[in-house]
Specification:
Blueprint (H helix, E strand, L loop, with lengths): L8 E7 L6 H17 L4 E3 L11 H7 L7 H13 L2 E12 L2 E9 L5 E6 L5 E3 L5 E3 L11 E5 L2 E5 L8 H9 L2 E5 L6 H19 L2 E4 L3 E3 L5 E3 L3 E3 L5 E4 L5 E7 L2 H9 L10 E5 L6 E5 L3
Parallel strand pairs: 1-2, 2-3, 9-10, 10-11
Antiparallel strand pairs: 1-16, 3-4, 4-5, 6-7, 8-9, 11-14, 12-13, 14-15, 17-18
Helix pairs in contact: 1-3
Amino acid sequence: MSTGKAATFTAGLVQMRSGLSPQSNLDAAVRLVEEAKRAGADYVLTPEMTNILEVNRERLFAAIAPEEKDATLAAFRELARKLGIFLHVGSLAIKLLPERAANRSFLIDRKGDIIARYDKIHMFDVELSGGESYRESRNYRPGEIGVAADLPWGRLGLTVCYDLRFPSLYRALAEAGCSFLAIPSAFTKQTGEAHWHVLNRARAIENGAFVLAAAQGGKHENGRETFGHSLIVDPWGRILAEGDTEPGVILAVIDPAEVTSARAKIPSLQHGRRFEIIEPMAEPAHLHAVRGPA
């Protein structure tokens, strides 16, 4: 189990406003990744749906490609190699079948090799106020496997956006030795205003881990409005860096020793216990035991 190395590193988060053209989105992302590298970033994270933000089924599947043919992914692999950084592509829409895609995250090392892939597990199927409606499961196949990967500074847990609302995933990643939790996102403006900061800080605090949350922000070509406010949060829940709603880069120096310190102060990862919940049953009238998580 990796608990982090002594050396610090600089994390750079790229905030975008992805549109309908994968090539235009790639061009914008490359400029921002290069800006992060010039500012000293060793690890750079882009947001969810870096290559396209589109809900129209026909236009989406006309624009995306299988992983082995995806020009955006190939370009990012070359960029990571050229810049000598760990480049974490928050997610790309990757075609699996003619009418089914994956919302897939890629971690690329300094040689340009893909060292981890993660398919978003939790699908954003919601009805918000004001007629705002999303059915991610209509176009995307949910993942089934949590993914952790080792960086030179410690272990990273890969997640995407709506996963943020399912704390058991993050606890499992922390128990698997993750010191850093990546949460690339395209949070809606409505839900972001209400929940973005508190959820990211909670995931950091309850797991004693750094949270790295690169976000989409602003009004997109397809009419959707995302919240932005990319965040880097330390293991004590303090916000080290924050974006606004405009495309750009935020950076922070990450000291893995802070993970050890926070977990020593509040060793909740060691205190989890199995439990049962006793609840009343309507018919017949007796108590019913429900087993809690391991």
